[in-house]
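Work through this:
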Amino acid sequence: MSPAPGPRARLVTSAPARGRRRALGGGQLGRTRSTRVDVPAAAKARAFTSGFTAGLPELHLLRLTLSTSGGRVLSENTYWRHRTPEAMRSLGDLPDARLTVTALGRTRKGDREEVRVRVGNRGRAVAAMTRLSLREARGGARVPPTLYSDNYPWLLPGESRTVTLSQPRTAAHADLTVRAEPFNGSPVSAGA
């Protein structure tokens, strides 16, 4: 993992790096891999490997997390790993996810307007590749151009994530909704 280059890039010291393998139902597979790494600004550092051992399911998730020594998450990525392309078919067998979307507020930042929402998975199955979209409250048309702090997240059962959606103030609409649509479930929306 490496921090994003740019004006905020800085040395990260003794940062906990964790890797967890998860079944599609959300349960952990095996033990958590963990180490501490020093990452120079705009560089990368080797932490550990997570082998695809014989006892693992044909398709499973690998979540990698890099945090500060104080526990603030710097980077989190979820990957699906499969032995064969055919193993990907099991995504179609996932039970329906049950999502919630809660609007946390709108603010103006410079020439942009931001909408913050919390997306949660209250079901017993993983919410796969949850697509977020900012939409007009009337008619439901997507609002371009929108920037997302995160999109298409995998949400484990009981997990939630706060996401910021940003649009130019010149394109701002008075009445908006945020829609969350998991690969394995029905879309839900909340006024923003």
Observations:
- The radius of gyration is 18 Å.
- The longest strand covers residues 28-39.
